[in-house]
From TrEMBL:
Molecular function, one GO term: protein-L-isoaspartate (D-aspartate) O-methyltransferase activity
Protein name (Swiss-Prot/TrEMBL): Protein-L-isoaspartate O-methyltransferase
GO cellular component terms attached to this protein's record: cytoplasm
Active-site residues, Swiss-Prot/TrEMBL: 68
GO annotation, biological process: methylation; protein repair
Family the entry assigns: Belongs to the methyltransferase superfamily. L-isoaspartyl/D-aspartyl protein methyltransferase family.
Keyword Transferase applies: yes
Domain of life of the native organism: Bacteria
Localization, UniProt: Cytoplasm
Reactions listed under catalytic activity: [protein]-L-isoaspartate + S-adenosyl-L-methionine = [protein]-L-isoaspartate alpha-methyl ester + S-adenosyl-L-homocysteine
S-adenosyl-L-methionine is among the record's keywords: yes
EC number: 2.1.1.77
Organism: Mucilaginibacter mallensis
Keyword line: Cytoplasm, Methyltransferase, S-adenosyl-L-methionine, Transferase
Length: 218
């Protein structure tokens, strides 16, 4: 893929329209909408496909994976209630678009991807467009215990169950957002850790994610 990092009126206008589309679909957190309006999603696409970048759709990014639909990114981000300085573990870096949204909101991001091709590309692209998370290559279904605990954990692939390891790596008062279900559809689940072994779980809307593949997953 050839990378060209320019942002013209066409892309800026399309980004504004995308924000309005997401607002109409129910995204209400102004900070999240502002971040969507600021992160240049076309930077994650080959220039040939820039006309697709601000449609509210998922799109192939190679290695059989997708950049998530903007609505899904905004929905998961809203559920995380990011505060400036939050330490966030993101499982499934993909192309890094969600990572940039978290960074825009002031989070300190630890992001892990199991596909080497995506890990290599994202570790090159993100610093080049001004975003600096902590990148990891490996099986994120086990979390990253050496940097735990995290204030927030976001899983961007569909899991069969909530991995116990992720609950353990959540700080008390922390929030986990994870799609849980079978290969065809998953329910978005948020878990609030209220005590060392106490959790409050809320099951929300249905989505379709690529599978979370790993030791504690599919
Ligand atoms: N949010 C990403 C973005 O903005 O591009 C999209 C993520 S994509 C829907 C899900 C990603 O999770 C894929 O890149 C996939 O390789 C990755 N993945 C699946 N299982 C994983 C695991 N056990 N550990 C780390 N990454 C995993």
């Amino acid at each position: 893929m050839a990378y060209k990092f320019t942002d013209n009126y066409k892309e800026q206008g399309a980004r504004k329209k995308l924000v309005e589309v997401l607002r109409k679909k129910g995204i209400a957190d102004e900070k999240v909408l502002e971040a969507i309006g600021q992160v240049k999603r076309h930077f994650f696409f080959d220039e040939t496909f820039w006309n697709q970048a601000y449609k509210d759709i998922a799109f192939p990014i190679g290695a059989g994976q997708t950049i998530s639909q903007p609505y899904t990114v905004a929905y998961q981000t809203e559920l995380l209630h990011i505060q400036k300085g939050d330490k966030v573990l993101e499982i499934g870096t993909g192309c890094g678009y969600q990572t940039c949204i978290l960074l825009k909101l002031g989070a300190v991001v630890y992001t892990i991807e199991r596909q080497e091709q995506l890990y290599e590309r994202t570790s090159y692209v993100l610093p080049n467009i001004g975003y600096k998370p902590n990148f990891f290559l490996g099986d994120g279904s086990k979390g990253i215990p050496e940097h735990a605990p995290y204030n927030k954990i976001i899983v961007t692939a569909g899991a069969p169950v909530i991995p116990e390891t992720l609950l353990q790596q959540l700080a008390i008062g922390g929030i986990l957002v994870i799609p849980v279900g079978d290969e065809k559809s998953q329910k978005m689940v948020t878990v609030l850790k209220v005590g060392e072994y106490d959790y409050e779980e809320i099951v929300l809307d249905t989505f379709r994610f690529v599978p979370l593949v790993g030791d504690k997953a599919w």
